[in-house]
Specification:
The structure holds 2 protein chains of 2 kinds. Chain A is an all-beta fold. In chain A, strand 5 and strand 6 form a beta hairpin. In chain A, the strands form 2 sheets. In chain A, strands 2, 4, 5, 6, 9, 10 and 11 form a 7-stranded mixed β-sheet that branches. In chain A, strands 1-3-8-7 form a 4-stranded antiparallel β-sheet, with no helix packed on it. In chain A, about 0% of the residues lie in helices and about 50% in strands. By secondary structure, chain B is an all-beta fold. In chain B, the strands form 3 sheets. In chain B, strands 2, 5, 6, 10, 11 and 12 form a 6-stranded mixed β-sheet that branches. A 4-stranded antiparallel β-sheet of chain B has the order 3-9-8-7, with no helix packed on it. In chain B, strands 1-4 form a two-stranded antiparallel sheet. In chain B, strand 5 and strand 6 form a beta hairpin. The model of chain B has no long low-confidence stretch (mean pLDDT about 95). Classes of the chains: A mainly beta, B mainly beta.
């Protein structure tokens, strides 16, 4: 019954080696978000898609990119991971428009940079 | 920009007791949504309760209820008859009508057997 699915759950990557995290949803929501959460901190929004419209947060480093090829899938690309990028990455979805919904979260991908 | 403040970094309470988590927010908007999310250790973030700002009645979900004071911009969560499974980080969150979700810094709640 999983509605927002993130793969992989755990990812280890080398310093500077590009890495891609994936997220899929079965809710047909028009908004998909990527959050970065470091230990014991609040999730920090990196960017979100409203349909195909990409919305980047002002303080998101250029090192972070995203793609949304269709409604169901969204990817987070980290072009050159640094040690400071080690974190939990959360994908979430919501429906925006008539009858807005709350955000539904995936289980997250824990990224380790070595 | 909207801000969400949770002034209690950590709380603990005995099992079966009642606990209240505080949250205040700052906005000039009149149409928005407020949420409490629960994040158990190493587990998924899940919604606990939701409140629409235009509704005066406080939301309730079983043992969970809120005290929404719109004028004071306050949105506290009350957990009644607390259970061991309530141990988690609790995040208060704000969403403007068509915008992103903004989280507070969280309250780590521990239920003591």
């Amino acid at each position: 019954d999983a509605m927002v699915i993130q793969n992989p759950r755990y990812q280890v990557t080398q310093f500077g080696k590009p890495v891609t995290l994936s997220c899929s949803q079965t809710l047909n929501h028009n908004v998909m978000y990527w959050y970065q959460q470091k230990s014991s901190q609040a999730p920090k929004l990196l960017f979100h898609y409203y349909d195909k419209d990409f919305n980047n947060e002002a303080d998101t480093p250029d090192n972070f990119q995203s793609r949304r090829p269709n409604t169901s899938f969204c990817f987070l690309d980290i072009r050159s991971p640094g040690l400071g990028d080690a974190a939990m990455y959360l994908c979430a979805t919501s429906r925006r428009g008539a009858g807005n919904t709350e955000a539904f979260f995936g289980q997250g991908t824990r990224l380790t940079v070595v | 920009a909207q801000t969400v403040t949770q002034s209690q970094p950590e709380m603990s309470v005995q099992e079966a007791e009642t606990v209240t988590l505080s949250c205040t927010y700052d906005t000039s908007e009149s149409n928005y949504y407020l949420f409490w999310y629960k994040q158990p250790p190493s587990r998924q973030m899940i919604l606990v309760i939701r409140q629409e700002a235009y509704k005066q009645q406080n939301a309730t979900e079983n043992r969970f209820s809120v005290n929404f004071q719109k004028a004071a911009k306050s949105f506290s969560l009350k957990i009644s008859d607390s259970q061991l499974g309530d141990t988690a980080m609790y995040f208060c969150a704000f969403m403007r009508g068509n915008e992103k979700l903004t989280f507070g810094t969280g309250t780590r709640l521990t239920i003591i057997p």
